[in-house]
Amino acid sequence: MTATAILYSCLKLLGAEVEFHVPHRLEDGYGLNSETLRRLAANGVQAVVTVDCGVASIAEAEEAHRLGLELVITDHHEPKATLPRAAAIVHPRLPGPDGATYPCGHLSGSGVAFKLAWALCKKSCGSAKVTPPLREFLLDSLLLAALGTVADVVPLFDENRIFVRHGLQRLRARPSLGLQALLKTAKLEAKINLGAVDIGYALAPRLNAAGRLGTARLAVELLITPSSQRADTLADFLERQNHERQLIERKIMQEAREQAELEGDAPAFVLASQSWHPGLLGIVASRLVDQFARPVLMIALRDDQPHAQGSGRSVPGFRLHEALQECTDHLVSHGGHATAAGFRLLREAIADFRTSFYSVASRELGPEPVAHRLVIDAEVPLATLTHGLLTALEQLEPYGSGNPQPLFLADRLRVVGDPPPRRRRRTPSRLPTCARMAARCVRSPSAWATASRS
After folding, report:
1. CB proximity list for 101: less than 8 A, separation 6 or greater
2. What is the DSSP letter of 103?
3. Are 149 and 198 a contacting pair, CB within 8 Å?
4. Closest Cα partner for 297 from 369, 364, 251, 345?
């Protein structure tokens, strides 16, 4: 969604006649779709630019070529051995024409879109310095790239860290009308120190809600609308969608957990149900990975379609896209990267696929389930958690994948009571109070405790 908003706004600003198309998750699946390409060609479209997809769409790219469409692919997912036929492929891990590789290979789809938009703006101006309108557009796009980078859980170091750090500054100082409305519905409009955690746990779920339950088109419209009234309407709709998503997600989580517990000591889980919503499989799989510490694949079955749709999440050290490649004989299609992937398969192939995937997981992970690990950064007495230390820890932000919040251990603690409720303030302090830290740190009289600034 953020990548679409970036390139749509860029091309329109540069004078192109442009429209955007967001696949319907339930009807079109993910990525390029041959039927959609035929419909676009019939409507007079001459060029198609993909965002966050396409590098593994070999057959669809051939169809685009047959239709006379100029295809430009921007993606960050794992490519296959053969690249699709396209006018250009923009990908951070593919070598350039001179054989050189890009120094930051872990850009998100929105990061790739931002880099392309930046190059187009410089090209249109004929210099590295762009015009004031294009500069403002690029600053707005940097914020969108930050949203997509955090939401896609890519490592927050190198260029990704720069995107998020400066994008958060833009979010605090000058959010778009759509994001202003979204901050309001999330009750964050008065928060001073907006951080990556607010993107990951407040803004991204609301933006994703519409796409998970159907189509993300309205969320893209929210990101690009010039109307404050339309922004408020769309933000309210996404809030209702997010509430509905939470209710459905809890039901799926309960059913999936029960299935997983029946699997016992299996090296991974391949779970399937007729009642699960395809758009929520990934987020539930992620929660199950956190709980069981092993790869989880979830499959949604539908009576009206012969193909079942699946989504998976993995654990460190188990490259999910490579594991699916080993099981490709049982799949119709698949794509993704090391930690997350999507796939489609025939209903009657599920049992054989489960057996094959379990075999790969057992070989790679060993016979015993992966144990949960808790990595402590330092052992400290609570007295060392001073104002100066917490201020210094702020310099390590933004926190997220690849740059987790510091985790401290303090032992020999004793619970003496519950902290009093903290009154809500319009301008909250940038630093947590002792009461908040005590509530978050102390778990039991004799056990270790953690203190983590969030």
Report:
1. 93, 94, 95
2. S
3. no
4. 345
Q: How many CB atoms lie within 10 A of CB 368?
A: 9
Helix (H, G, I), strand (E, B) or coil at 79: coil
Interatomic CA distance for residues 357 and 342, integer angstroms: 14
Q: What is the pTM of this model?
A: 0.82
What is the mean pLDDT of each successive set of 10 residues along the chain, which is 454 residues long?
Answer: 97 96 75 92 96 94 97 93 95 90 94 97 95 96 97 92 96 96 95 91 92 85 96 96 94 95 90 92 93 94 85 92 93 87 92 95 81 85 89 89 90 86 55 43 38 36
Q: Which domain holds residue 35?
A: 2-174
- Token pair listed for 394: 């702020």
Type of residue numbered 298:
M
Element (H, E) at 146: helix 132-151
Last residue of a domain, one of 158, 174, 190: 174
- Same domain for 275 and 338? yes
CB 10 within 8 A of CB 121: yes
Q: Are residues 329 and 292 in the same domain?
A: yes
Same domain, yes or no: 361 and 384: no
Task: Please answer whether residues 167 and 138 qualify as being in contact, where contact means their C-beta atoms are separated by less than 8 angstroms.
Answer: no
CA dist 366 and 267 (Å) reads 8
Cα separation, 432 vs 452, whole angstroms: 10
Task: Assess if residue 215 is contained within a domain.
Answer: no
- The number of distinct structural domains making up the chain is 3
Tokens coding 436: 């908040």
Co-location of 78 and 10 in the same domain? yes
Q: Which of 180, 147, 155, 161 is nearest to 1 (CA)?
A: 147
- How would you classify the pairing of strands 70-74 and 340-346? unpaired
Nearest to 295 by CA among 258, 323, 268, 325: 268
Strand order in the sheet with 70-74: 47-49, 70-74, 88-90
365, 390, 417 — which closes off a domain?
Answer: 365
CATH number at residue 312: 3.10.310.30
d(CA 147, CA 196) in angstroms, rounded, equals 8
